[in-house]
Amino acid sequence: MSSDWTVDTLKEHVERIFLEHGKALENTLVAVKEAQAAALAAVKQENLKTEISAEKRFELLNELRSGVATKEQLEALEKVVEELKIYKAIAESKAESWLVWLGLFFTGASFFFGIISIAISVYVVFFQGK
Prior knowledge:
Blueprint: H1 7-67, H2 71-127
């Protein structure tokens, strides 16, 4: 059994295996670093999207909160509406009463002129005819 292996060839063989494994390990480390960088970038991007989404939700909630009236605001608004209804009713009643007074005035004036017309007619008939 003769072996072609000598100390020098065995040394070269082992060194070659170490170099190959070293290169493979280097390539693996480079690939791992690239994968870690890509994963980190993806996580950062996802965090950014999550933060933007959360900000938009908070903005929407704030808009909704500012748009919704509180109970006190609704009660104050109802009070103002009731006061406006009262003022409207008063204004309408004043307008109606003004029209009533105007109608009464014309009725009274008509009655007055009617009495005067009758008085003149009676005077003309009884006192001018003799």
